[in-house]
Design a protein that fits this description.
heterodimer, A: alpha/beta, Beta-Lactamase, Heat Shock Protein 90, Rossmann fold, elongated, B: Rossmann fold, five-stranded parallel sheet, 5 strands
């Protein structure tokens, strides 16, 4: 063996892949160490044995080597070698036949490449791939699930939100509906009752008076019914809010009883009032609702009593550091209630006897409301009654004590003939109500101006001075709240403003206060209450601004200018107003002095010209047209060169009014400048 | 609206209060580019600004004896540019004054009052309309 062959042999032996030579009959003729290792059989034992016996699939192996002989070679045919101990080795079978010099096939060289490692890697790869695919799939599923979960959560939230919104909308709609309905019903009722009252005051025959009284009474009871329904609805909606404001109880109750007096007198009943002097003067509670409770009890007492007396008692039950407990009782000598009916009378639309309504009227809502008003405030209502002897309704409520000043409470004042000539602005969009308010106010001896909406009202307030403003709340263009806010915040006026409202919900009252209104009065307007409120507020604001007011009255009396026209022309733009006034102040004194000079010089042409020139300014500044005519006269006389005795007087008058106008305009100028700076 | 598209309007009156009021009205009501002059002389000096319309007070020489009256100014304006419509304005509601203005080829005559602005606006609107029609007519005439 030469050196090359030795080298080749050692290379073959070094290969980790089994290398085998077989003869044409498939017997192993030679091999390397790798085959011995893979099969676990010694080289001696392997030599001469059948090659295919060492494979797991001998038939296939035989087929493969037969193919080698048939075609000359085989590439990468997968087979599995078996170790004698059972261990399997995956191989790729590559073989090629070798031939002698004459081309006769002698045998084949076979390489069984060990692919265990590759297979393992491949398997692992596949597994990894599958795992990865699986993971991806899981992730995707998870993602989808998460998405759908999110979506479900979102949907749920949305549904919940929708539900809440719908519920809120429903409550709002209900409240709105009630508010609107009450407005819509009360507005015409206001006119009906108001004009009936006005008509009753005129000369009417006894018959007419009877009919009118019937209309008024029906109207009154309809209003009561509407109010009752509204109140109950509010309780149902949980909207009944009790205020906690300091108020003077004694005053509050006597004011209310005062309102009731005509009815009591009408039926020839006696009203007995007992008020415990120990009750602190100012307490914290809800005077409006307290009124309502007592009013309902009292109206029942009056309704069911045909003769005798009605007693209203207010007693102090308990008092400690923080609060007092006050008992209220309303007794009558009326028809009484049977014991077994007492439970029933507090239910909605229930009266003690089905016949009661026919006999005495009413809807049976009064006591239900009383109960609804007393119980949420922590009180309870008690009834003692005997048929044909009378009933006593009593309840007790707690009130917090306070050192705070009571809020302004209207005292009922009788028509005072000394208080006349107050100028009131009525802001109201409904023509009928405008007329009604005008009639009532003029009855009081007040002057009355009307604005159809908040915008117009503001324009009017800018040019006129009013002692008080009656402000409707629901109006087109600019409602009462916005107008009041404007008057208070932008115009900085403290003029008393009383809200005229058809819908006395607590929400509105709070809004009135926030906007800066001083008080409110419900439609249909009770004349005496209206009068009292106006007079009370005007007196109060008079006290506050006594000196200021005097000044204002002073200037008001002498005012010769009226900026109404200028306001309209300039759209109340302060800058333009200022420009106009400044120009007037610049030109007018010059013209006046020219007029005087020319008069002195008997320069008729110049006098005529200057008189001529001053004319347009008069109407622009709203100066009385008398002066315009005077100037025209001067011009006329002068142009005809007729010396008239009248001219110097006319010129003097024009001069006086112009000086006055300049003074007033200077004042206005400052006012406007101030508004500009704010 | 750009300045070019605006109607250039000259207001001429020696009554500065009334002049200002007119200015305010025009500024507020429509797209006008306004120049105000307190004398006719000043108006003439600025005629090169090419006003579309002039509102001219009739009685300009009342106080200032040296000032030219409205009619003189009107004549001068039309001498420079006969196409400018001039609307005369006066306190006097005398027929003679109106006739005088018309004879001097003013396009219209308005008495000063609280409503003179509305009249002026209407006149100007009509004049613009008229001018438009004239233009359209000329356009068609050229093509016949």
């Amino acid at each position: 063996m030469d050196k090359n062959r030795v080298n080749a042999r050692s290379l073959i032996e070094a290969s980790l892949d089994p290398l085998i030579t077989i003869n044409t009959r498939g017997k192993i003729t030679d091999m390397n160490e790798a085959l011995a290792n893979t099969t676990g059989i010694t080289r001696e034992n392997l030599t001469g044995t059948d090659f295919f016996e060492y494979f797991t699939e001998p038939q296939k192996a035989r087929g493969v080597y037969q193919e080698v002989f048939a075609t000359g070679s085989v590439n990468n045919s997968p087979l599995t070698l078996r170790h004698k101990d059972g261990k399997l080795t995956d191989v790729l079978f590559n073989g090629s036949a070798y031939k002698d010099e004459q081309g006769n096939v002698l045998g084949a060289v076979v390489v069984a490449r060990d692919v265990t490692e590759q297979k393992r890697i491949a398997t692992e790869l596949t597994e990894a791939k599958i795992a990865a695919e699986l993971a991806t799939k899981i992730a995707e599923t998870a993602k989808i699930k998460a998405e759908s979960a999110t979506r479900i959560a979102e949907d749920a939230t949305k549904i919940a939100e929708d539900a809440t919104r719908i519920a809120e909308d429903a409550v709002k709609a209900k409240q709105q509906f009630l508010s609107n309905m009450s407005h819509e019903i009360r507005t015409p009722m206001n006119a009906i009752i108001g004009f009936t009252k006005v008509l009753l005051k005129t000369d009417v025959t006894a018959k007419q008076n009877e009919y009118l009284t019937a209309i008024k009474l029906s109207g009154d009871s309809l209003i009561v019914l509407i109010n009752d329904i509204l109140d109950l609805a509010k309780v149902d909606a949980g909207k009944m809010v009790f205020e906690q404001t300091p108020f003077k109880m004694a005053l509050s109750i006597s004011a209310m009883l005062h309102l009731f007096e005509p009815k009591i007198h009408e039926k020839n009943l006696t009203l007995i009032k007992e008020y415990d002097a120990q009750i602190p003067e100012v307490l914290i509670g809800d005077p409006v609702r307290l009124h309502q409770i007592i009013l309902n009890l009292l109206s029942n007492a009056v309704k069911f009593t045909s003769n005798g007396e009605i007693t209203v008692k207010v007693h102090l039950l308990e008092e400690d550091e923080e609060k007092v407990t006050v008992e209220f009782a309303v007794s009558d000598t009326g028809i009484g209630i049977a014991e077994d009916k007492i439970e029933k009378i507090f239910e909605n639309f229930q009266q003690a006897y089905s016949g009661t309504s026919r006999l005495y009227g009413g809807t049976g809502l009064g006591l239900a409301i009383v109960k609804q008003l007393v119980e949420p405030q922590g009180g309870s209502i008690l009834v003692e009654s005997k048929i044909n002897e009378g009933s006593t309704f009593s309840f007790s409520l707690n009130f917090k004590k306070t050192t705070a000043e009571a809020e302004y409470v209207t005292e009922i004042v009788e028509l005072d003939l000394d208080i006349k000539g107050l100028k009131i602005l009525v802001v109201e969009d409904i023509v009928l109500n405008q007329l009604l308010m005008k009639t009532i106010l003029e009855d009081f001896g007040f002057a009355c101006d009307v604005a159809a909406d908040g915008k117009i009202a503001i324009d009017k307030i800018q040019t006129n001075t009013y002692d008080a403003i009656l402000m409707d709340l629901q109006m087109p263009v600019m409602n009462g709240f916005k107008a009041t806010e404007h008057i208070r915040k932008i115009m900085n006026s403290t003029v008393p403003i009383i809200a005229l409202t058809a819908d006395v919900t607590t929400v509105d009252l709070a809004k009135c206060k926030t906007a800066g209104m001083n008080d409110y009065i419900a439609k249909p307007v009770d004349e005496r209450l209206l009068y009292s409120k106006i007079v009370g507020l005007v007196k109060k604001s008079l006290q506050n601004t006594e000196n200021k007011l005097d000044e204002i009255i002073e200037t008001k009396k002498l005012k010769c200018i009226d900026l109404d026209y200028l306001n309209r022309r300039t759209k109340s733009k302060p800058e333009l107003m200022i420009q106009m006034i400044l120009l007037f102040l610049e030109q007018t004194p010059q013209l006046i002095s020219t007029m005087k000079q020319s008069l002195q010089d008997k320069d008729w042409v110049l006098l005529s010209a200057s008189a001529h020139k001053i004319i347009p300014s008069f109407s622009i500044m709203g100066i009385n047209s008398d002066f315009e005519n005077m100037a025209k006269q001067v011009q006329e006389f002068a142009s005809k060169q007729i010396e008239s005795d009248g001219i110097p007087l006319l010129v003097f008058k024009i001069e006086t009014v112009c000086k006055q106008a300049c003074k007033e305009l200077e004042f206005e100028l400052n006012v406007i400048k101030n508004t500009l700076h704010e | 609206m750009s300045k070019e598209n605006k109607i250039k309007l000259f207001l001429v009156d020696d009554d500065i209060v009334f002049l200002k009021l007119l200015e305010i009205e025009f500024l507020d009501h429509a797209d006008f580019d306004i120049e105000t002059y307190i004398t006719g002389e000043l108006c003439l000096e600025n005629l090169s600004n090419n006003p579309d319309f002039i509102v001219l007070d009739y009685f300009l020489d009342g106080i200032d004896k040296n000032a030219k009256n409205g009619i003189d100014i009107l004549d001068k304006i039309l001498a420079i540019n006969p196409d400018i419509p001039v609307i005369m304005l006066s306190c006097q509601d005398k027929i003679e004054v109106a006739i005088d203005c018309m004879h001097h080829k003013a396009v219209d005559y308005v008495v000063k009052s609280e409503t003179s602005f509305i009249r002026l606006k209407k006149i100007i609107k009509d004049l613009i309309e008229h001018r438009k029609l004239e233009k359209t007519l000329n356009w068609y005439m050229d093509r016949i």
